[in-house]
Amino acid sequence: MENLILYYKPTCPYCKKVQRFMGKNGIDIEMRNIDENESIKNELIEKGGKNQVPCLLIEGKAMYESSDIIDYLKENLVK
């Protein structure tokens, strides 16, 4: 499986949309809450270029927008 990390905020409705999709489809990937500590937020900015969530990091490349992330997960992880 590819190296995937989802950066999110618990209060973000778009993050919740992605998380609901993941839950319904049994998708379990690494998740990092950017509100948890400053180093995670800084890591997102360093790797993704901006402070925007949700952000799915795919092999080091950032993907933003909840609908794009869900489409990617559908195509690559839903069985």
Automatic annotation (TrEMBL):
InterPro entries: Glutaredoxin (IPR002109), Glutathione_S-Trfase_N (IPR004045), GST_Omega/HSP26 (IPR050983), Thioredoxin-like_sf (IPR036249), Thioredoxin_CS (IPR017937). One of its GO terms (cellular component) is cytoplasm. Transmembrane segments: none annotated. CDD domains: GST_N_family. PROSITE patterns: GLUTAREDOXIN_2, GST_NTER, THIOREDOXIN_1. Residues 2-79 form the GST N-terminal domain. PANTHER family: GLUTATHIONE S-TRANSFERASE OMEGA (PTHR43968:SF6), PTHR43968. This is Glutaredoxin.
